[in-house]
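Troubleshooting: if your tokenizer reports a length mismatch, compare your output against this known-good record of 275 residues.
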Amino acid sequence: MAVSSKLRIFLECAGAPCTCWLILHKVIQSAFSAQSRNHANIINVHMAKLDLIFLGTGGGRFVTITQRRRTAGIRIVGEDLNLHLDPGPGALVHSINGGLDPQKLNAVLVSHSHPDHYTDAEVMIEAMTHGMTKKHGVLAAARSVLVGNELVEASISKYHQQMVEQRIEATPDVKFKVGNTEISATKAGHTDPDAVGFRFETEFGAFAYTSDSEYFEGIAKYYQHVRLLMLCVMRPSGKPWKGHMTTDDAIRIIEETRPEQTILTHLGMNMIFQG
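Known-good structure output:
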């Protein structure tokens, strides 16, 4: 299905961080409601010269298998940056339908080894490497994704891993660059013990993505001084689930980090039904 509409939110607005979050949350929530009625919507956040395109705002097993929200991840596009963050199911199709050529990618980032985050990673690598004909781009992924761990096998084949120019095992505090953007892996507390989030430092300011994580003491240190914080919030208030955030956790992190803006994404079924 072709994209019929886009919502662009400009992040230059001023005001108290929590107030901005509440206003933004209401706008985003209405966009999410529209998306449940019409799956052809994309959320596009514009940050100075960077576009963050949310090709999917859903997460968790049942949202993934029903596609009540798309699970295609986030495309981040700038002057010398074109990356796909957590390319879950539908990433390739929704990228193409949204006019985002996957062959223009110069990086693929995968936070951990769960299907709603990695499923389309290999085909996105194939696109990035021009059909596996040219070594190109950066692959940065959690250890579980690249080599596996005690719970899972590797999610991306050695065949695909060898076709990128730079392969990075993303562990907390590891830093690397894509173009002029410095990216660091942040610690996450998830059922995949190797899960990480990502923080992006640009000339326009910092922004970050927590990936799936429960609240833990010290999480806020990874997200200080960001303009935009993307929180993966699976559950509403009062319905905790191991390794995931509730809205209570989100509020606590926002209060501890005071970002200019916050976006809740990776919504589970309970969040969707309650919304």
